[in-house]
């Protein structure tokens, strides 16, 4: 058996440690860069939010009639691949893009141009936040405490008028769920 020292990466996540400070960071900067390269978004202008407000009301199924020409164009767009690639980023280290990805993933079977524009917006957000990740701090007041946050809205789904609820769980200051 051989001691390989502390792990520096796992499953595409970089592991950064401050042993004296009791902190551990998980980031995916290299993976984020590969994602942007794959979808030709590396030279794009960064934005400061994962989903711009003007997209919100354009996510209704009834908002856009089916257009045969646009449907043909959208069949050539790697929509499902882009959303799936971003979901891996979200699941591992980027809970900040969860809401936006939840919105665009509803249209995997029949995306319209506005949905593709929203996916590209998320990638522009990733471009400006490639260094973001999860921080776990052993000295934070919540280091050994499971903390939960819940939010809901009333009838805000534009298609079904259903209410939604979401939650976040943290430990050591870092998101775990």
From TrEMBL:
It comes from the Eukaryota. This is Reverse transcriptase Ty1/copia-type domain-containing protein. It comes from Riccia fluitans. The lineage of its organism: Eukaryota, Viridiplantae, Streptophyta, Embryophyta, Marchantiophyta.
């Amino acid at each position: 058996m051989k001691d390989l020292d502390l792990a520096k990466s796992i499953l595409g996540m970089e592991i950064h440690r401050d042993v004296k400070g009791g902190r551990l960071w998980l980031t995916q900067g290299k993976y984020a860069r590969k994602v942007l390269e794959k979808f030709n978004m590396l030279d794009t202008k960064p934005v400061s939010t994962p989903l711009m407000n003007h997209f919100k009301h354009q996510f209704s199924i009834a908002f856009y009639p089916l257009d045969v020409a646009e449907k043909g164009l959208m069949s050539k767009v790697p929509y499902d691949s882009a959303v799936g690639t971003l979901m891996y980023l979200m699941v591992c280290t980027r809970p900040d893009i969860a809401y936006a990805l939840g919105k665009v993933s509803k249209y995997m079977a029949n995306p319209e141009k506005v949905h593709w524009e929203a996916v590209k917006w998320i990638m522009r957000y990733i471009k400006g936040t490639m260094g973001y990740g999860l921080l776990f701090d052993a000295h934070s007041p919540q280091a050994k405490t499971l903390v939960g946050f819940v939010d809901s809205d009333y009838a805000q789904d534009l298609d079904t008028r259903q209410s939604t609820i979401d939650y976040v769980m943290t430990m050591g200051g870092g998101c775990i769920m």
